[in-house]
Each structure stands twice: as structure tokens, then as C-alpha cells.
């Protein structure tokens, strides 16, 4: 049964403490925090102070997804702000091994995110060093986008690589996750499902998290 990581990008920012309390009492395992800089992606979300505020109220690990250029500059600050997982984009890191080692030295779990056009094979030399691979199943930058069907193939290929080599990293998928695709995502090899607008736009967000977990049982 995959873990659920609701994305607070879709939360009500005017009632963020209330929404974090809801996630604390829900069946979600992580709280997904999307950081956008308006340069790597065409949108700006929030930064270090909001991450700190979320961490003060959260009782679950913060899964911080850095959709930013030159993420190395901000790794210590986001770790200090409460990140348990720090995920950087392959496309934003020319010295990816160095970045991954820096995250691990800070005491966080290291993750790598791949945009929809980026082949999983490009990670073959670093898969043994990371705790998580995040497959973007939409183009990063905005919530509420339609799921890209080729994502199933990428997840399955990554899962096959993991099994062949005996790696232990988790596979996370982010973008367009809902009750229609959660089961197939789990069957393809996904361990963690990120859901934002699907959870927070529901009449019963906590119940929706429970339904995602139940429908994705394999």
C-alpha cells in the first residue's frame, strides 16, 4: 500500500494551520511542500519562512520538493526549516552527485525529481546513493494539471531497475494523482503518491486521503 503525501501547494494559505492539523490527523504519511522560484518553473509558491511555519505545526515528515535553480544555495536553510526529505531536480543540478552528498551530510534523505521528458536511465550512476526518486507526471509549476500517461512506463522502468540492482530508494509520483489512477500507479511500482488539488478541493480531504490509500491496495 503506497504512502500518501498531500501537497500543501493546494491548501488554503489563509488557514494553513488548520489544514496542517487535518493532515496530522489523517492517514497521510508525509506532508509534501512544493518550493517554486519563478525561474526553474513558471510559478512562485513560498519559501523558507512558510516551510518553517508548516514544520512548527506538522507532526509528520516534511517532504520538500525544490523546483528551483541552484538548489545547493538553499539546502542548509530548508533542512533547518524542517525538511526531512530534500528533493532536487536532475535538470537543475549540473553536479548532482555533489548535491546529493550535501543533502545527506545535512542529515536529510536525498531525493531526485525527473521532469516528464527526462529518461530514468540518466540516473543509472546515482541510484545507489539516493533515498527517493520523484517522477513528475505533469509539467512542474502548477497544480491541477492532467496526468501524463507515459508516467506509468517510467515508473515501471524505474521499478525494474531497482529490482535488478537491489536498490532501496522509494518511487514517488507527483501530478494528476486521483482515484482513477492510484491503483495502477501502485501496480507500476510507486511507493508514495503526491496529491494536492484532488485532496484539498474535496469536501472531505481526510476521507479522500483514506480513499486514495484504499483504492491503491495491490
From TrEMBL:
Residue numbers binding a divalent metal cation: 32, 34, 65, 174
Pfam families per UniProt: Ribul_P_3_epim (PF00834)
Keywords: Carbohydrate metabolism, Cobalt, Isomerase, Manganese, Metal-binding, Zinc
Reaction(s) catalysed (UniProt annotation): D-ribulose 5-phosphate = D-xylulose 5-phosphate
BP GO terms, sorted: pentose catabolic process; pentose-phosphate shunt
InterPro entries tied to this protein: Aldolase_TIM, Ribul_P_3_epim, Ribul_P_3_epim-like, RibuloseP-bd_barrel
Enzyme Commission number(s): 5.1.3.1
Gene Ontology MF term list: D-ribulose-phosphate 3-epimerase activity; metal ion binding
Active-site residues annotated for this sequence: 34, 174
Gene Ontology CC: cytoplasm
Cofactor note: Binds 1 divalent metal cation per subunit.
Required co-factors: a divalent metal cation; Mn(2+); Zn(2+); Fe(2+)
Similarity comment: family membership: Belongs to the ribulose-phosphate 3-epimerase family.
Job description of the protein: Catalyzes the reversible epimerization of D-ribulose 5-phosphate to D-xylulose 5-phosphate.
Name under which the protein is recorded: Ribulose-phosphate 3-epimerase
Lineage of source species: Bacteria, Pseudomonadati, Bacteroidota, Cytophagia, Cytophagales
Chain's gene name: rpe
Amino acid at each position: 500500500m503506497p504512502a500518501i503525501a498531500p501537497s500543501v501547494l493546494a491548501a488554503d494559505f489563509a488557514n494553513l494551520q488548520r489544514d496542517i492539523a487535518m493532515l496530522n490527523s489523517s492517514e497521510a504519511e508525509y506532508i509534501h511542500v512544493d518550493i517554486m522560484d519563478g525561474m526553474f518553473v513558471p510559478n512562485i509558491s513560498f519559501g523558507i519562512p512558510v516551510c518553517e511555519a508548516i514544520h512548527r505545526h506538522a507532526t509528520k515528515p516534511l517532504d520538500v520538493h525544490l523546483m528551483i535553480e541552484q538548489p545547493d544555495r538553499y539546502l542548509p536553510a530548508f533542512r533547518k526549516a524542517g525538511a526531512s526529505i530534500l528533493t532536487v531536480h536532475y535538470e537543475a543540478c549540473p553536479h548532482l552527485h555533489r548535491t546529493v552528498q550535501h543533502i545527506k551530510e545535512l542529515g536529510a534523505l536525498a531525493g531526485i525529481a525527473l521532469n516528464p521528458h527526462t529518461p530514468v536511465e540518466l540516473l543509472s550512476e546515482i541510484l545507489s546513493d539516493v533515498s527517493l526518486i520523484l517522477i513528475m507526471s505533469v509539467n512542474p509549476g502548477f497544480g491541477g494539471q492532467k496526468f501524463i500517461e507515459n508516467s506509468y512506463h517510467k515508473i515501471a522502468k524505474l521499478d525494474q531497475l531497482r529490482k535488478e540492482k537491489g536498490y532501496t530508494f522509494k518511487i514517488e509520483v507527483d501530478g494528476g494523482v486521483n482515484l482513477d489512477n492510484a491503483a495502477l500507479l501502485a501496480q507500476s511500482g510507486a511507493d508514495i503518491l503526491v496529491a494536492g488539488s484532488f485532496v484539498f478541493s474535496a469536501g472531505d480531504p481526510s476521507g479522500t486521503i483514506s480513499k486514495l490509500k484504499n483504492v491503491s491496495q495491490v
